[in-house]
């Protein structure tokens, strides 16, 4: 990460295609080819883990299991597991620029069940599944959890009708495993599909000189296999109910703060195990990605703990996190790793010191840097530092067109002057030029800005549920002119892929 390079932030779900959501299919391979053509080094994505209520990849049933929406049905047909008639002609959604998650949730399951049946009819494939189960030691617990959850109409763990299985009593677990063996097998096989397809796509990218930047949320969901199987690692009661939850106090997104709902870690118990679960989790992350962005890095120095009788996210307090001790263990166990710290929001002296101690590159968000027209913001382009990853914005920010439209006239004039914006030049191009000109070793362009998309293409509005994570690109939007622009600024600002060829 010590060379000037660049990349594009584009989640898998946002890829075009005919299956209602982006997948690991041919459009993903074509996206890799686009990155190669424009001399990029990185493809940054959001978490690949399962999504639950609200469709957020940051609220998952598992810290490890993959999102089966991303499994490409065409590939399953090519492998002989599925008849194309099962999905060709199916209407997975009427809007090609938006994912209809409720629709694909209902439509994909019976199709995947057919593929699982086709897979299991081949003895050689069953042997491959057995090998996968040996290597993926988490998959049995995950398959148990999902099958049992479905048997309770997909209710959250804490709402399951049988408290014996909530507590994971051995007799109850054995009974459910026998009763739900077919459903459990379904979840194992679909995880095999996911991991096999992702491994092939990542291999293709790596062979082309493209590295994948993945994303690891700091917290797991209360409704997750980890809370079910390892409750001692979380502040929960005997029925797995969170005693306190995560979030942040009032910020630029909400006067009431943000209620994330994730259970807080019992950090003292993690310390007693020498942070074994964290070492395991990060190790698993690097099986999927080449670089790993750790979300909400601030939470490792100190975190906002919201008490159980909360009325709003402001009903909380800052509590000390594990700090450097955790990352010293990770380094001792796994060596030096290419980790990116998402060090945004409430970065005080303690959080800043942890970033310095780990020497991880932090993040700079140029949109934040232009609110102060005197240029004093730590995110102003001239205040970027070499050991950082620069963005105009991430999935939680407005796209540049929406952001610029909401600036004051004074702020817009400052942006125009600072970026040397030419007459009739799209503000997206002016900002991307400025981004690539920073001294940050890595610059990441969001795909919406590269495509000059409007405000409605924003990926997520923090502290809201519904209507997020839906944006998809149209294939025809990626024109030769847009490719040429990206290639030109990559060359001009000395960010060409050093691994190309």
Automatic annotation (TrEMBL):
What this protein catalyses is: Transfers a segment of a (1->4)-alpha-D-glucan to a new position in an acceptor, which may be glucose or a (1->4)-alpha-D-glucan
Keyword DNA-binding found: no
Name the SUPFAM superfamilies for this protein: (Trans)glycosidases (SSF51445)
- Per the UniProt entry, the Enzyme Commission number(s) are 2.4.1.25
Which one Pfam family would you cite for this protein?
Glyco_hydro_77
Which UniProt keywords are given for this protein, alphabetically ordered?
Carbohydrate metabolism, Glycosyltransferase, Transferase
Signal peptide start and end residues? none
Leading EC class: transferase
The molecular function GO annotations come to:
4-alpha-glucanotransferase activity
Query: Would you identify the family this protein belongs to, as annotated?
Result: Belongs to the disproportionating enzyme family.
Please give the name of this protein.
Answer: 4-alpha-glucanotransferase
Instruction: Name the encoding gene, please.
Output: malQ
């Amino acid at each position: 990460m010590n060379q000037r390079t660049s990349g594009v932030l584009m989640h898998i779900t946002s890829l075009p295609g005919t299956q209602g959501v982006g997948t690991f299919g041919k459009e993903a391979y074509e996206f890799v080819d686009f990155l190669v053509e424009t001399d990029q080094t990185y493809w940054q994505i959001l978490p690949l883990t399962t999504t639950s209520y609200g469709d957020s990849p940051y609220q998952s049933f598992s810290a490890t299991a993959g999102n089966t929406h991303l499994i490409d049905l065409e590939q399953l047909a090519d492998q002989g597991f599925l008849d194309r008639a099962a999905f060709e002609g199916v209407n997975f959604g009427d809007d090609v620029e938006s994912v209809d998650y409720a629709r694909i949730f209902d439509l994909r399951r019976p199709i995947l069940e057919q593929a699982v049946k086709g897979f299991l009819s081949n003895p050689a494939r069953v042997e491959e599944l057995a090998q996968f189960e040996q290597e993926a030691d988490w998959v049995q617990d995950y398959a148990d959890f999902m099958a049992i959850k479905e048997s309770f109409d997909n209710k959250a763990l804490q709402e399951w009708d049988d408290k014996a299985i909530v507590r994971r009593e051995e007799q109850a677990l054995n009974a459910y495993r026998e009763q739900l063996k077919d459903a459990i097998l379904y979840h194992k096989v679909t995880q095999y599909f996911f991991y096999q397809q992702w491994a092939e796509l990542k291999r293709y990218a790596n062979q082309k000189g493209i590295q994948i930047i993945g994303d690891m949320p700091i917290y797991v969901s209360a409704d997750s296999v980890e809370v079910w199987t390892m409750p001692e690692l979380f502040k929960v009661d005997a029925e797995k109910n969170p005693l306190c939850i995560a979030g942040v106090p009032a910020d630029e997104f909400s006067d009431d703060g943000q209620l994330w709902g994730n259970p807080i870690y019992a950090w003292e118990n993690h310390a007693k195990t020498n942070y074994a679960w964290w070492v395991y989790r990060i190790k698993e992350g690097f099986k999927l990605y080449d670089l790993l962005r750790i979300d909400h890095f601030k939470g490792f120095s100190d975190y906002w703990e919201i008490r159980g009788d909360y009325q709003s996210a402001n009903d909380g307090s800052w509590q000390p996190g594990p700090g450097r001790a955790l990352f010293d263990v990770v380094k001792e166990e796994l060596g030096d790793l290419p980790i990116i710290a998402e060090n945004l929001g409430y970065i005080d002296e303690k959080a800043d010191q942890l970033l310095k101690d780990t020497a991880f590159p932090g993040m700079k968000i140029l949109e934040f840097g232009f609110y102060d027209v005197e240029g004093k913001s730590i995110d102003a382009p001239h205040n970027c530092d070499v050991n950082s990853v620069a963005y105009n914005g991430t999935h939680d920010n407005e796209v540049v067109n929406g952001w610029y439209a909401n600036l004051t006239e004074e702020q817009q004039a400052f942006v125009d002057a600072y970026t040397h914006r030419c007459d009739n030049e799209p503000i997206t191009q002016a900002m991307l030029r400025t981004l690539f000109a920073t001294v940050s070793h890595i610059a990441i362009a969001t795909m919406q800005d590269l495509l000059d998309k409007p405000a409605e293409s924003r990926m997520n509005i923090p502290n809201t549920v519904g209507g997020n994570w839906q944006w998809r690109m149209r294939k025809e939007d990626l024109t030769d002119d847009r490719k040429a622009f990206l290639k030109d600024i990559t060359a001009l600002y000395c960010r060409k892929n050093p691994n190309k060829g």
